[in-house]
Amino acid sequence: AQSVAQPEDQVNVAEGNPLTVKCTYSVSGNPYLFWYVQYPNRGLQFLLKYITGDNLVKGSYGFEAEFNKSQTSFHLKKPSALVSDSALYFCAVRAQRTDSWGKFQFGAGTQVVVTP
Amino acid sequence: GAVVSQHPSRVICKSGTSVKIECRSLDFQATTMFWYRQFPKQSLMLMATSNEGSKATYEQGVEKDKFLINHASLTLSTLTVTSAHPEDSSFYICSARPSGQGLSNQPQHFGDGTRLSIL
Q: Once rounded to an integer, what is the mean pLDDT over residues B23-43?
């Protein structure tokens, strides 16, 4: 079984300040981890993924995420938030060894609100 | 690259109507597509996995006769909500994963969703 937890329903941050969105996961074996962003009435946009290699992964729009195996975490970060970063963020995981369809498990989502 | 087009973006119709939603991968082939349902301010709920040339795999609790899925080609999957009722009103999103590459580590690419409102 695989699961994802996003402990914060909402994160509020002032523009220009660092942004962190938390994600922890549980899978059997090694994970593939993903972050997506969703704007209102839109689908999900892919931000970044961790497959293997460096624990710090850089993605789109200045976002990065750090994989921490011992803490089973994959927190999303941005050094300086923009008002346009206000959106709903989803963490997703799948085990490397799983069914052939490649189903993801999504977290509950974290609403990010960046104030001017 | 990796664009997924979902149509229509919004549907408003009367109770009892059947509604078809299309999901197309525009610049890649997708052996597997996924259909999700999303309630306001909630996460995505996987409804079914659509496989080209074979029957869809439905998640537990999803009525296969209510939500008909057809994946007739490597670039098109359709979801038909049959005899829709107000409780079927929701945001439906499809995704596709490129085929021909390693299955495990590729991200899913999402359509922009369909807002279905049943009166």
A: 90
